[in-house]
Design brief:
The complex is a heterodimer.
Chain A (H helix, E strand, L loop, with lengths): L3 H9 L3 H13 L4 H21 L5 H24 L7 E6 L7 H12 L3 E4 L6 H11 L3 E5 L7 H12 L7 E5 L5 H7 L3 E2 L3 H11 L4
Parallel strand pairs in A: 1-2, 1-3, 3-4, 4-5
Helix pairs in contact in A: 1-2, 1-3, 2-4, 3-4, 4-5, 5-9, 6-7
Chain B lengths: L2 H7 L4 E2 L5 H6 L11 H4 L1 H14 L3 E2 L8 H4 L7 H17 L4 E6 L13 H17 L4 E7 L2 H12 L5 E5 L16 H10 L4 E9 H14 L4 E6 L4 E3 L2 E3 L4 H6 L1 H6 L2 E4 L7 H10 L3
Parallel strand pairs in B: 1-10, 2-3, 3-4, 4-5, 5-6, 6-7, 7-10
Antiparallel strand pairs in B: 8-9
The chains are: A alpha/beta, B alpha/beta.
Chain lengths: 212, 290
């Protein structure tokens, strides 16, 4: 059996090739894919997040580790799907209508994928109707909205109202983030959660799914 | 050293300008509106801002072209408008300067991350080259690659700017890490100074990011890592959101009080970024006994 500590280390240092190789070997030897994900990869991404919060890691290290994690998940996912194991959750993510900024949103999307979520990236300038369609057509469990501008923040409220009117508000957790966003604003507009960082967003999404 | 930079620095440190976006907002630009398109639609208001800085004592003023690259403009302007917005931006600043100040044209980031595959290096380089050419055509005295978070992007912008033959300033934002002395991508002032110098920028430095107090250490570290003249434009403190609008805490006199220290550490060009208004420039001028 391959050394799972090595897999953990490979994710932490963002070595996609080694991450994939060990995962492949482990799967070939019959290691339970869920064990790989839950006991190795997710703890590794938690460690990456911790290092980011402690300023040991910066954006490039985060992205490289998330990419390594994602490359391993691509091997694991088909097996899990075939036996009926669902992903951690399905997230419809986008920058709200009127706002074209996407660095923050893309970072959160990468980390959510690295955290075991299936991410449906709707891009920037996303209309409420697009979020609604994704909930009904793709069975998203989480709607994650980003806004960088104080002027586009109100589109978050409009989107939540749109979800309510379309009768899908109760089907999802709504999480928001972006430079001008605060917990107070999240409470005000009836969002289910707010995170001030991309790393925090993954923990928040897990919490929203009742895990972690 | 580029002859123009040499000439400017011959009389001691050069006073640059403050923020433009907040000045335009005071003149009716709404918060989500794209400031650069005002060069075409509200040229008189843009000119007012430029004149306010010249009157306050700026020896170098920038241009309202920070976001006017093809990638950032995106839906805001038809592709054909990119050159027009940049060229007009320089012309407005030049007319306002009326020979009393030099016009250094602003080139900001694209808002996309190379590392995440948001945009290719070629597309980014082309966007900067297109902007740089238009700014040069408008008659800019120099180009300023500013508010960069990613050294890779800054290097592409510098290369594009150098193609025009104009002197090039390049400055980074240090706002990350526990001491707020790293770029978003984790680069230290030393790494930034070396990379920007190697890329061929004539003047290097830091802008935005944090208040002027934090710039003392950053200036010292940049100075130790490069021989090039330093360009420093700090924010007027860290913003706090008050009723949905950013409020900056540093007063003009307090801000200007740090300037002699920065000059002592080798600052060649000094001004302000977010929250710094024309009265900050007046205060700096008094502080330097001009």
């Amino acid at each position: 059996m391959p050394d799972l500590k090595e897999l953990y280390d490979a994710v932490v240092r963002g070595d996609a090739r080694t991450t994939q190789a060990i995962t492949q070997q482990a799967l070939a030897e019959g290691v339970d894919p869920l064990k790989l994900v839950n006991e190795c990869m997710i703890p590794a991404m938690d460690e990456v997040g911790r290092r980011f919060e402690c300023n040991e890691y910066f954006v490039p290290e985060l992205l490289i580790s998330a990419r390594a994690m994602k490359s391993a998940l691509e091997l694991v996912r088909p097996i899990l799907t075939a036996r009926g194991d669902e992903p951690m959750g399905r997230v419809a993510i986008g920058t709200v209508r009127g706002d074209l900024h996407d660095i923050g949103k893309n970072l959160v999307a990468s980390l959510l994928e690295g955290g075991g979520f299936e991410v449906i990236d709707l891009g920037v300038n996303v209309a409420p109707e697009k979020f609604i369609a994704t909930i009904t057509e793709k069975q998203a469990n989480i709607v994650a909205m980003s806004a960088l501008l104080t002027t586009t923040m109100p589109a978050m409220k409009t989107t939540i109202e749109g979800l309510r009117q379309a009768g899908v508000r109760d089907k999802v957790k709504v999480l928001i983030g972006g430079a001008p966003i605060t917990q107070q604003y999240a409470d005000e507009i009836g969002a289910d959660g707010y995170s001030e960082s991309a790393v925090g967003a993954v923990a928040l999404a897990k919490k929203a799914m009742g895990a972690g | 050293m580029h002859p123009l930079i040499q000439q400017l620095l011959a009389q001691g440190p050069v006073i640059t300008d403050g923020a433009w976006g907040t000045q335009l907002q005071e003149r009716g630009l709404s918060l989500g509106e794209f400031p650069d398109t005002w060069n075409l639609t509200h040229a008189d208001k843009v000119a007012e801002v430029a004149r306010a800085y010249v009157q306050a004592g700026s020896q170098v003023i920038l241009t309202n072209t920070f976001g006017a690259n093809r990638i950032r403009l995106g839906d805001h302007a038809a592709a054909g408008a990119v050159s027009e917005i940049n060229r007009r931006g320089v012309e407005i600043s030049r007319a306002a300067a009326a020979g009393r100040a030099r016009v250094f044209a602003s080139m900001g980031p694209t808002g996309k991350l190379l590392m995440n595959g948001d945009v290719t290096r070629d597309a980014m380089g082309d966007a900067f080259a297109e902007q740089a050419r238009a700014l040069a055509k408008g008659g800019a005295d120099a180009l300023v690659v500013e508010t960069m978070s990613d050294l890779d992007e800054a290097v592409l912008a510098i290369a594009a700017a150098l193609e025009t033959g104009l002197p090039v300033v390049a400055c980074m934002v240090f706002d990350s890490g526990k001491d707020k002395d790293r770029t978003m991508m984790g680069a230290t002032p030393e790494q930034a100074a070396r990379t920007l110098t190697q890329a061929g920028a004539d003047v290097i430095g830091a802008n935005c990011g944090q208040g002027i107090a934090g710039f003392v250490a950053i200036a010292r570290r940049l100075r130790a890592a490069t021989e090039r003249p330093l360009w420093l434009k700090p924010n007027a403190g860290l913003p706090a959101m008050v009723e949905g609008r950013p409020q900056y805490s540093t007063a003009p006199e307090e801000f200007a009080g740090y300037v002699p220290k920065l000059v002592e550490l080798g600052a060649a060009f000094v001004g302000g970024c977010c929250g710094a208004r024309p009265d900050f420039i007046t205060a700096i001028r008094r502080q330097l006994n001009r």
